[in-house]
Amino acid sequence: MRYQLITVLGPTAVGKTQLAVKLAYRFNGEIISADSRQVYKRMDIGTGKDLSEYFYKGKQIRYHLIDLVEPAEEFNLFLFQKKFFEAFNEIISKGKIPFLVGGTGLYLSSVLQGYNLPEVEFDEKRIAELKKIDIETLRKKLLSLNPNLHNKTDLQNIDRLVKAIIIAEKRPANLTDEKRRVSSLVIGIKVENKILRKRIEERLERRLKGGMIEEVENLLAEGITHEKLRAFGLEYKYVSMYLQKEINYNDLFQKLSTAIYKFAKRQMTWFRKMEREGVKINRIEGADYETAKQLIETEFFEK
Prior knowledge:
Rossmann fold, 2 domains, two-stranded antiparallel sheet, alpha/beta, six-stranded parallel β-sheet
């Protein structure tokens, strides 16, 4: 085989999971999720886990890095990379093909571009020093350390800000390490903007009717705060606003669908950045199984 991994990436709502499941079935693979929110338990509808999609022709395709931690816990890039390699090595050891599937650009880059992420210890003295500084100064400090900050929610919460600054201070200036780069055939799904917008709206309507608001109410009932929900962003942020009567139902749908579409555009911007930095993305129109299958047959395996 010419590669160690097959990656299926694309913005939200383009059908990544369904396509990857069919491909994993065909090529004896297992799926590793690259989604920053699907790691959380009981956050199913809002994150779009759609676990029923992992069944194909009577067989369940095994998945990894979904339902790993409690919503009250923190999950970060270092943990993702660590868990990815655990799953990757397990799948390889069974003689199967790992499929990395998702749309969280930072997580995908950490694997495909070989981020060097040593574990960072959080010194209590340094935490106390930073917490004496006002939040606006901390924001400026973090952005000066990390101008390409991906997770904007780190800017909203003092604890996340402080941790992000400590991580940025201790991480190496050269983030990539060739030794950690995983050789992957990368398949990128693209759709026209008008079609993408329509899919986002249709999917959001299904999720709202399917219990997404009730899911958020259940999280609140178990002690997850509105502040934490807003830090999760998108669906959880806007449903939190709706439940606190800051917006009505129509605003919830309109504002959230627009926010998801803008998020999809940011995902596409990130993928273009990856390409400029040397990641080859084989783009296909829509979640086209036949095109993707042919690409794998001709490119993944030795000719």
